[in-house]
Amino acid sequence: MPQNRYHNAKQAYSILSYKIFTSKVCATVSLIYFKAYAAALVYLKAYAAALTYAVAILAMIFYFSAERTPIKRIEKDIVVSFDNGEKIKAASDVSAFSSSSLESSSDSSVEHLIWKDQIIKHGDNLSIIFQRSSLSAKDVLDLTSIPLSEPLLAVQPGQKIQFALSPEGELIQLRYIKSKLESYLYVKTDQIEGVKFTGKHIILSPEIISTYRDAIIEGSLFLSGERARLPYGVIMELANIFGWDIDFALDIRKGDSFSVLYEEKFLNGEKIDEGHILAAEFVNQGRSFRAVRYLSVDGSAKYYTPEGYDMRKTFLRAPLDFTRISSSFNLKRQHPIHKKIIAHRGVDYAAPRGTPILAAGDGKIIASSYNKANGNYIFIQHGQEVITKYLHLQKRKVKKGQKVSQRQIIGTLGSTGYSTGPHLHYEFLINGVHKNPRTVALPQANPIKNSERVRFEQLTKPLVAQLKSHQKTSKLAMILSSKKQKSNN
Fold first, then answer.
1. What integer is the mean pLDDT of 132-157?
2. Which numeric CATH code is attached to 324-435?
3. What's this model's pTM, rounded to 2 decimal places?
């Protein structure tokens, strides 16, 4: 009988000791130990009671002195039975064994990862980048063996790779940031059929807001655009849209003006980039040119006049970005080398050596060669009537018989042949007759397809109306500002 009593008391002591280390309900802990002590006094000898009391006191001191972290609790009843039939029920904390604790443990391991960033440099490949981060060739092999590894093999300078390492230096995660909107995440998993990493392609969608800017030309388009807080990329796109009608190197005059409605992209409230120009107007020497962007049914985007004519003409007015015209079209010009009156049947465009030369229009190369007078030269046949010629090139990048498209690079500017300095001599012939490339009437661009006419008007009219509304508001603001200045004076 004493052995049974001692055994029961020992069971109570074991269970209640577990409770002390897991429960946070101080009053309940005290009650349970008081009951245990009372039982020990009745059924056990004095030394057993004293031992139980001492253990209870030490356990309580340890509990209150220990640093505790709040955790999610799951309540479970523990029932302690004694020989006399009395039962004591207490709520116990068993969250250490719950599934939520496993999730917490997993999150905790992620929080302890060490992140390292690598900015990709010129000449870098995956092996070099991993070596710089103290990772092995095996890590490279593990990552490149999965289906979504192709992007890692085509990294570009300026992009970023982030490594997440365990405290022991093991690669756990890799994040390849291709741009602010596109990235790839690779996470180490339990090895299944030899696959140690899984990949995920992440694309973020920015918020797109339309923005309006306008300016009056004081010097150049670029300086005026900068004063109007127009981003460089938008200025370039504006020049490309109207470049078919306006020569921005020679035709711009003080007092010309432009207004433009374009997109800005935001991510989490931060501006990350500019989008496309939606609608724009440029007034050059009193002539107004307007353009609107239209996305066709097949997904291609072009700029048209509000009436539906393509802004892209059949031919470029000038086949390069030039600094100045060093010699104009002149049938009675004195040749700078031969000092004789020799007709200059083209235009000489001066620019830095190596400047790309573009095909003025779609066509076929009918000559790509070299001679003493022309140096490196290229002739292009455009349909049945038009031929364009490009002389004094440094390099030729096309061959006879090859088809080319408008704006395709066909060579680079140089000073070969009879030439006094780096320039392109450009000729424009219609039915074998030389025409001035700067003033020749270029063929009218094609209009929008009849099948898309209704859709074109539905999508573009609101953009043109929005541009006009901004123009009126801006003009009114300028008038009020001018009146205010006059009244102050």
1. 89
2. 2.70.70.10
3. 0.61
